[in-house]
Design brief:
- This protein has helices at about 45-50, 60-85, 115-125, 135-140, 150-155, 190-200, 210-215, 220-225, 245-260, 265-290, 305-315, 330-345, 355; strands at about 1-10, 15-25, 30-40, 90-95, 95-105, 105-115, 130, 160-165, 170-175, 180-190, 295, 320, 365-370.
- It is an alpha/beta fold and about 400 residues long.
- It has 2 domains: about 1-145 and about 350-370, ATPase, nucleotide binding domain (Nucleotidyltransferase, domain 5, 2-Layer Sandwich); about 150-315, Nucleotidyltransferase, domain 5 (2-Layer Sandwich).
- The strands form 3 sheets. Strands 3-2-1-4-7-13 form a 6-stranded mixed beta sheet, sandwiched between helices.
- Helix 11 links the parallel strand 11 and strand 12.
- The longest helix is centred in the first third of the chain and has 26 residues, at about 60-85.
- It is globular, with a radius of gyration of 22 Å.
Amino acid sequence: MIVVGLMSGTSADGVDALAAELSADGDTLVAEVRAARTVPLPEPVSALLAATLPPAQTSARAWSQLDAMLGDALGASAATVLEEAGVAADLIVSHGHTVDHWVEEGRCHGTLQVGQPAWIAERVNAPVISDVRAADVAAGGQGAPLAPVLDRLLLAGRPGRPAALNLGGIANLTVVEGHEVVLAYDTGPANALIDSVARRTGDEPFDRDGLGAARGTVHEGLLAALLADPYYALAPPKSTGREHFHGDYLQAHVDEVCGDRRADLAPDDLLATVTELTAITVADACRAARVSEVIASGGGTDNPTLLARLRDRLAPTPLRTSDELGVSTQHKEALLMVVVGALSLAGVPAAEPAATGASAPRVLGSLTPPSARVDLGWLREPPARLRVLG
């Protein structure tokens, strides 16, 4: 079957889309990638996302517009990758875009992803699985990270305690031993604060090639204040997102530490500081988990400065990228959606309770349109009228 995975990440500038043909070889799931690309979001959609995401104040109308416009853009992204692959889809799996992840006192009470699946189904004429986190949250889990279901399959049988690291807006870590996930959680920000600084102080939405951070000098006082965030001391399972690590959060720390001299903090120094924050918090998490190797993916792998700081902090533990395992660093999360969707369609749980803290494994996602129809027998045609009795 042909499955398309769609992931709209924290950067809010494009959709990672991957089309794969799935088959089975004994107990091995085989995914032949037919096409993969990052499709830029239309400017009105990315602008609305930027204006709507936390900590922005917004309205129900803005949410409604965003849900529809992003759904249409996701459908267009699926159509683009299918055209490139020259195939028709049997299933689309869309993560949507996370606009809120409601965590209080270590417990996740809800999570919200937008990108209306009906628009995707209409665009590509295929069923869509969406809302892939809610079932885990309802079972007492964090709804995140979901990557362990893929990481376990990719890292199974590697010696020692290999770790998969995703450097998206948020960094998440999966530690595998043998064929089992032993630990997985969000370590903290990866690109979220770096991108926020780049947007506020430069002309690009990210620190291209890490050049800004490479030019800058770490502000040790600000770094210490950021590292004192209570999130890092929480025991897993735990998850976080842009609703916590955002531009105003960083600015509040800058104001507190630098006071009247905050204007003296150069943008490059700020980039160097938040890049070092990511390197330290990720390396600390890997060291605490006693990992034997780290295999990284996500947009952060395009930042040579971040990778260099990570290698320094992780040494002597080796750091390599998922490309070495045959999985694109840029499209691994879209592949994750393909795997989650295939499992969900088969009625197989896709969330790892060891990672999310759920009471039990759950089948994830909702299907649009529903595949199951209840045969009422007596209702064969649309009714012409209704009579109410009693």
